[in-house]
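Entry:
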Amino acid sequence: MARGRPDFSPTAADVVLRPEWAAEESTDKDLYASQVLTPATSVSVTYVVPAGKKLFITQISISLFAAVVAVDGESNQIVRGYVTVDGDYKGDIGGNGGAGLSLSKPAIATAGQTLVGTVENWSNHNTYGSISINGYER
């Protein structure tokens, strides 16, 4: 039985999406921040896009869970996360314990612009909060 390509050719060309290619070429960007948050506090990650580059944001995820599980583990873990580029909102998500947003159309930050990703604790107890922003640069 023949193996490989449907036309049995010895060579092939793959078509890949830009995020997959960026990971292969090491131009992918993974920005992350995490911290213990008291009620009504936040933690942020900041990134300035280098000269001659564009940052394409493809994914944002946030999480929040009780710092003291025995006391607050069954409570609501209300969380909000958002990303801005030079003050303009590019993504705003929220949930109970976490949330994720995949952008089919990437949000773009250009050279010299500042991206800020923030996660906020809207719960009434101490939590661990984190935000992850993923994309690629070219």
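Strands lie at 28-37, 42-48, 54-66, 78-85, 88-96, 98-110, 114-121, 127-137.
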